[in-house]
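Notes from the pairing session

We agreed to fold both candidates in a single pass and log them together. This is the raw record for the first candidate, unedited. Please don't reformat it; downstream parsing expects exactly this layout.

Candidate A
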Amino acid sequence: MWGMDASKTSSGPVASRAAGIELIALSKRYDGGSVAVNAIDLRIAEGSYCCLLGPSGCGKSTTLRMIAGHESVSSGDILMGSRNITDLPAAARGTAMMFQSFALFPHLTALDNVAFSLKMKGVARAERQQQAQALLERVAMGHLAQRLPGELSGGQQQRVALARALMNHPKVLLLDEPLSALDPFLRIQMRAELRRWQQELGLTFIHVTHSQEEAMALADTMVVMNHGVIEQVGSPHQIYNRPVNEFVARFMGGHNVLRLPQGLMAVRNDHLQLGSPAEACPSLGGTVTDVEYQGTHVLLGVEAVDQQGATGVTVMVPEARFAEHPVQLGQAVSLWWQPQQAHALAA
């Protein structure tokens, strides 16, 4: 299990309300013996943006629900700042959750959706609506306060859901795949807004996603999970450039995992070169099996041969270079790379 501290200097009008989260040997076991989360340790710095990611069933959403208080803890502890919140009810933790479906009440206006939690607390109508309107203004939705959810776009609904989550002044905002219901163009736009909101609010954001691209765009710290354990924690740059093992290298994409005389190595797709190798550079031979035009570059699939036999390799070739030296399906090619561009992986 790998871990490190997330670090970021928080700023913004409510930075003092942020809190860090620490998970200590946190586990979730179900009747019948299945283990969803297996004794993970993680420290998330106050005011940082942390993304939990991994394949379906890796334990990321279960971890988020345990932090939220929506899932009981089998063993271990959850600390928020100096408080142990492991056994506290969800409403007493200082967290708020944004769900994948936004979970807005369809019969209530945007304003009343945001004000709903204060209504349940008995806050007077005028006061709760004033607070709700102020939050809608903050997320650029004040002019649509009287619209029903069905009259709003997906991105507008997400803004309302964010305003509602902020109504109770949380210290930590938890986001369960909040962008997955949006179309690809809107997803890119909304992730930029999420990042801006997090920086302006100064809160700790913990965001579950299965998208490597989304996590790299948003996170100060990425937590890669698999089979209920943490494989690696680090900045997007650290994890992409120095994956600790074969799982992380393959899951993050953009890497070729090769079995070479010096051991298991990862070489990025864009670091592989076609043609005769430069002096003293390692190389592999192979046959082109796929050619995909991607606009700025061409992706080549190559069946190469490493120390353990045939292996699939992907090569990213800049468009201009491919135009000068095109290759065809079935063509034999040589692949090479600079020795310093190969990264050793743990067995």
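Candidate B (folded immediately after A)
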Amino acid sequence: MTPRILHYCMLFAALMLPLAGAQAHPLAPALLELRAVGDGHFDVRWQLSLLQPSRAHPEPVLPASCQPVSAQRSQLLEAQQAVELRWQIRCDAPLIGQRLAVRGLADSGVNALVVLHDREGRTTQALLDATSPSMQVPAAPSVWAVMGQYGGLGFTHLLFGPDHLAFVVGLFFLVNGFAFGLRPLLIMTAAFTVGHSVTLALSVLGIVRLSPALAEAGIALSIVWVGWRVLRQRGQASAALVHGRRAALATFAFGLLHGLGFAGALRALGLPETAMIPALAAFNIGIELGQLAAIGLLALLLHALPRALFQDPRRPVTVTAAYAVGSLGAFWSIDRLLQLAPAVPLIG
């Protein structure tokens, strides 16, 4: 490796270093769920991810007409890595037209998903953030509104999920950007898309289940694989690689694993009972849009590099990206495999 390439590797790795400590799915927003159980009575569930920064803790704000009628019960959800509070309230007035809010979103840096199940079986949902920390309960929830919310969640999950994003970056450089034309990039992207779409649907609908810990470990190993494959490239001779069936099949298989990761995040949020299929489809579309946005941004950045800096401007950047992606994948693999291993003392 030349000193110039090593320099860019170190620079790129330094920029990517903050992601190394990131957990698998920083999406996990806070969840406020209200479920009608009787005349004016609601079961309340407040869930807060343990993966989020602890500099501040958001709190739910219910209408003044609603008062608690039971004590709060707390439990630790190890599978979701979250803490959950449950209690029951009684509301002296209908919730339609009133506001549900979450206090402290700006200070905590997280979003909050609000889910309301009424007595008629309808579900109303809204994603709150620092700029919109409250929602007004509508008379009837719109399917299009639900799809917009879940589409936004899927888009955010891809772009701000460091492990999924690292794999997409690796796929982009596996075909050397657009150096070999659009077709091989579409082949690899389509293989990944089909793979994660299949397991996302099957897992969310309860047809396929896999331990979340195993799925996360497999996702990390897939990132190591894609980084290794990028390093095996050698200029135009690697065109056969990106057209090869084995690479496409491997990408499809790893897409199956990433779909299980997407499904885990979606199950944590929950799907509306009256709009399950539209919400699932919108979430998957949001993932695809996030994937296309990442690829488009990488293409623009690669095209903007000054050609005078390199004899072949793509080669140093490709090697740098391969080392960065592979190193992140190795870090996550070790961390997640250690979490799977039984607690056996190393000394004594």
